[in-house]
Request: fold
Amino acid sequence: MAARKSTSRSKATKPKSSVSKDQLLDWYRDMLLIRRFEEKAGQLYGMGLIAGFCHLYIGQEAVVVGVQGALEEGDQVITGYRDHGHMLATGMEADGVMAELTGRAGGYSKGKGGSMHMFSRDKQFFGGHGIVGAQVPIGAGLAFADKYKENGKISATYFGDGAANQGQVYETFNMAKLWDLPVLFIIENNQYAMGTSVQRASSETHLYKRGISFGIPGEEVDGMDVVAVYEAAKKAADHARAGKGPYILEMKTYRYRGHSMSDPAKYRTRDEVNSYRDTKDPIELAKAKILDAGWADEDTLKGFDKEAKTIAAASADFAQDSPEPDPSELWTDVLVEG
Ligand SMILES: Cc1ncc(C[n+]2csc(CCOP(=O)(O)OP(=O)(O)O)c2C)c(N)n1
Ligand SMILES: [Mg+2]
Reply:
């Protein structure tokens, strides 16, 4: 994760758990950083410092953090436009992400990409895509490169429940299985595509079954439970890395905020949102597991929260101190000569 040293990953101290104390504490901090970063981004948007689109990931943190726990250095990550959490999870710096959101020269795309268009070769993060479903064939292409190069790496390709109804997803499924590409298709089923519920838009609402006719195994996962996400992702990653081809993980999750920053939210009730916040919140669930195992006390966890808030606040300061791109930048990074 960005801007803090991760703790060492020692062996499990409690034999009953599939994850170690250090793993769970790391994930707790990683989820908190995403939450606090997104809250800060929401504030900056409200202050008029972020223009254009901005899709917050609040509520879905366990998905990207649990999957990232199962990835190895050099594996690639690609997603749609709800992407800030994915960037932070790959280890991209909060400063550079916030500066990009605010269109500043210190951003990952020098302030020219914004929320939906950021990349990091260093962290193997391939965007950030605004066209619904477009990242899916690209994600399979990354896996094709891995297979071609025989480098043992895999591609984590994320998309939403709405994107799962796009035609190019199924062309990709066919070729990914035909060539047994090492790709995890991670469907973040947050139950809505803008204002349309899965029930209204999908003839088969169990999205993990969408690979059956291609011979791709799929699994439904509690996407609010970071440990369940990690375990499923680990199994799927082992499958892909062993040369057995793609795997579909349907993460059942929920977004607390609107689709983007302007969303009348008439398609769901406040009670529905509150019931997720109150009973399924991924950060609270992880906290309960940590306290239950006796792996940290309340004060330590509060300290982690303070740390996350400090990083988020510092990224907002960094962004505001960073200049806007020079007009001459209009002519750079727009064409790569072949
Ligand atoms: C090809 C295409 N069609 C329509 C849109 C408009 N659009 C933007 S987001 C979105 C909903 C996608 O929902 P989902 O895949 O569930 O992702 P989520 O927003 O829930 O993360 C739509 C229809 C678009 N950007 N691209
Ligand atoms: Mg959705």
